[in-house]
Design brief:
elongated; 28% strand; alpha+beta
């Protein structure tokens, strides 16, 4: 880890932050600004930071605890990001008789999994 100066994306305030050393200069700048924004005290960064924390928590749950195929997990990880950033209210995936639903509730991103029983069609 090295120290770098980053600036808040919202208010521009600069801050000394710790970032990874083995990155390109562009990646270092991006990570420094991301860290500075996460640590800034302005109202916009606080709201953004809370949303990023909710996204990260949900993605950690998907990666480490949710039982699903890797392909489904990949889609759910992206869905958590989409919901967390406000691009959609809900994402529903049906895969092999299981329904996965990702949505926001009380500033948390929720993942629900339930077995779907399809009724047979009659003639």
């Amino acid at each position: 880890m090295i120290e770098a100066i980053g600036s808040c994306t919202f208010c521009g305030q600069t801050k000394m932050v710790r970032i990874e050393e083995n990155l390109t200069q562009e990646e270092k700048n991006r990570q420094a600004n991301w860290e500075a924004t996460m640590q800034c005290g302005c109202e916009m960064s606080k709201a953004w930071s809370e949303r990023q924390t909710a996204i990260n928590y949900c993605q950690s749950y998907i990666k480490n605890k949710l039982r699903a195929t890797e392909e489904v997990k990949d889609v759910l990880l992206k869905a958590a990001e989409i919901i967390g950033n406000g691009y959609a209210d809900k994402v529903v995936i049906n895969h092999e008789e299981v329904e996965f639903k990702v949505y926001e509730k009380k500033q948390k991103i929720i993942v629900k999994k339930k077995k779907v029983i399809e009724e047979g069609m009659s003639d």
